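Ligand-bound model needed. copper (II) ion.
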Amino acid sequence: MVSSLRTTTFKTAAAALFAGTALTLSACAEEPEAPAPTKVEGVIDGITIDNARLVLAPVEGNPAALYFDFGFDGDRVFSLDRFSVEGAGSAVMHQFGEYDYKVQMMEAMPVPVKKGDKVEFKPGDLHVMVFDLSPEIKAGDTAEVTMKVSGGDTHKFTAQVRAAGEER
Ligand SMILES: [Cu+2]
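Prediction:
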């Protein structure tokens, strides 16, 4: 009788202690200054972007093309699939391929990335087609690009806006 009472008391105390710990943890997680390890909004550790340029179409209103040199030296694996450009209606990853007996561009499959990989988005190859770009965005400006990888993390970078006739 005595021993079973002790056990009950112990269990209750343990439960209370556990509840207390859980409360402390959740309160801690809600504090804005709680350090989130190596997690910065809009930055994926290990990604480098070089030579980013958004080349406008010769005819205003036609889609622009985004090119850049992508590198990754982090420890995770993911794939590149979704892009958005500030001031544009949509952005779609394109690749050239043969379709209907003609070489033409089409939506690209997600590109898997691991440590040490480099991917060149370049003319005649993988690129991002940018649709419904605001006419406010002119050659000489910069454009804000957001890359959303599998898993939902984003990496933001800036591209130089170039006129159709400039070097691609
Ligand atoms: Cu394209």
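Helices lie at 2-30.
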